[in-house]
Amino acid sequence: MAKTYMDRGDLVPDKVTIAMVRDRLSEDDAQDGFLLDGFPRNVPQAEILRDMLKDWGQALDLVLELVVDDDEVVRRLAGRRTCSQCGRIWHVEFDDKQDDLCDACGGSLFQRDDDKEETIRHRLEVYQEQTAPLVAYYADEGILVGVDATGPVEEVTQRAMEAIRPFMG
Question: pTM value?
């Protein structure tokens, strides 16, 4: 059900997303800690998450904001290609792909609907309307840390790890 919304570039409805998160966080392996990626996506979800965690005697330690401009987001996502046979993901720029074949298995590469520029730009508009207010919400909570997410993966990873290190046990 969630994939249908994502393929259109829309966000998955709160009811569906919250049920998935609640189920996942109730699993045994999440009891000693967890990392959420892409959730919450709006302030009402953040409030439900806060209340859910409070009921379980937990709270968020940190919210990491990866800061990157829209054109960079489009460049990164629109360049992705997926192998039709093995599912491996390639990038037309970062992997120096000169053809439309998978170097791993020889399958043909294709661009997923949610990686097309018009879909990405729509998602960015939805982000500005619904998700961007979370920055202020978590800043007010005192748990927001922003990290510059431009540059090579290794550099962004290093900056992110440095930002979360003080919060690790």
Answer: 0.76
Round to whole Å and give the CA distance between 127 and 144: 17
Q: For residue 68, which of 137, 114, 139, 124 has the smallest C-alpha distance?
A: 124
Q: Which domain holds residue 19?
A: 2-167
Total domains in the fold of the chain? 1
Side chain identity at residue 43, one-letter code: V
CATH of the domain at 134: 3.40.50.300
User: What is the chain's length?
Assistant: 169
Cα–Cα distances in angstroms (integers) from residue 88 to residues 50, 103, 105, in the given order: 36, 10, 9
Residue numbering of the annotated binding site for Zn(2+):
83, 86, 102, 105
pLDDT at 43: 95
Query: Which amino acids are annotated as binding site for AMP, given as ranges?
Result: 10-12, 38-41, 45, 112, 123
Which residue ranges make up the annotated binding site? 10-12, 38-41, 45, 80, 83, 86, 102, 105, 112, 123, 151
**Amino acid occupying residue 163:** A
Cis peptide before 152 (omega within 30 of 0): no
pLDDT digit string, tens, across residues 56-107: 999 999 999 999 999 999 999 999 999 999 999 999 988 977 789 999 999 9
Residue type, 127: Y
